[in-house]
Amino acid sequence: MTTEKEKMLAGQLYDAGDAELKQLRLAARDKMAVFNNELDRSKRQELLKSWFGTTGEKIMIEPRFACDYGCNIHVGENFYANFNCTFLDVCEIRIGDNAMIGPNVQFLTPLHPLNAKERISGLEYGAPITIGDNLWAGGGATILPGVSLGDNVVVGAGSVVTKSFGDNVLIAGNPARIIKNL
To answer: What is the mean pLDDT of the chain?
Structure first.
């Protein structure tokens, strides 16, 4: 039998009101409260290492960080995210090494049915986000469900990334498009 959590991670319609998922979200909120009130950077780093699915040794996220679960976030070595970032991780978010994330950046994996009856019923689904090495995401950028970005990608400030892009590009705009090959 497939659990609601298994369906969620597989990108299938699932019941967000499931008791196990509610408990996991509540545990994540407790961790967010501790993390966001911790002034010591090294203690915040250790909290992230014990909370996220996987991390490198060097990871730093500035306070007012928000997520759904945390355990579905996987980041590489030398990861930095500035203030007020949001990682909604109903599906996996994977980011490679040497990432620089500006303030107010959002990684959003949840999706909701277009059919009103399904949406009102509490069913939802998601799509993972996968990003290669050496990402620089400017302040206020939004990465939407199902997006994959290659290595050495720069996302301009305020951009909304609605589709996938390969390696070595500067993308910007709403929707984001290639501005320049790097």
So the answer is: 97
**Where on the phi/psi map is residue 125: left (φ > 0), alpha (ψ -120 to 50), or beta?**
beta
Give the C-alpha separation, 15 to 57, whole Å.
35
Round to whole Å and give the CA distance between 54 and 176. Answer: 28
Bridge partners for 125 per DSSP: 111
- Tokens 């679960």 found at: 69
- The rounded distance, in Å, linking the Cα atoms of 6 and 12 is 9
CA distances from 85 to 8, 42, 63, 106, 158 (A): 22, 19, 8, 6, 13
Eight-state DSSP code of residue 54: B
Coil, helix or strand at residue 31 = helix
Distance CA 155, CA 160 (A): 9
pLDDT at 43 over 80: yes
Which residues does the annotation mark as catalytic? 112
Q: Is the pLDDT of residue 1 over 90?
A: no
